[in-house]
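thread: overnight batch results

M.L. [08:02]
morning all. the overnight job finished for the chain we discussed friday. pasting input first so we're all looking at the same thing
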Amino acid sequence: MSACFIHWLAADLSGLAQAATQVLDGNDGAGLQMETSTWAHYYLGLVHYQHNDLVEAKRQLTPLVLQPSQSHVQCFLSSAAMLALTYLAEGQPNQAREIAEAMVSFALQIRDTIALLTAKAFQAELALRQGRLAEASQWAEQYDRPLARCPFSATRP
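M.L. [08:03]
and the structure it wrote out:
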């Protein structure tokens, strides 16, 4: 998984896909931890999204979003954001909004303040991408910390 992260940081999508596939292929069925597996699927979903293979991106990401308690919280949030952006790229803004709402609901359910801030930041970014400027501005006005670049803004427009 360290190789996946390094390839991701280097924007080496082919290396990222290869490393994530090796993680999943190297599994003997019992030895791979669930967290490792979910991150590998997230990275593959990310690669497919960047290659505009939206069907395969959804195939990799959907199971992670449907079972949020099976993933590390950050993996769930990242996967959900990528899936929402995939739906948005397909011209399905309502599905994208539903996923963003599910991110917030899950963060509230597990009572994780950092996850909630992340989910709400993504909701604001999604609103901005969808032209709902008032909603995005409302989030920015309520945010009481210096604004840094949203972790999801590195994705393609």
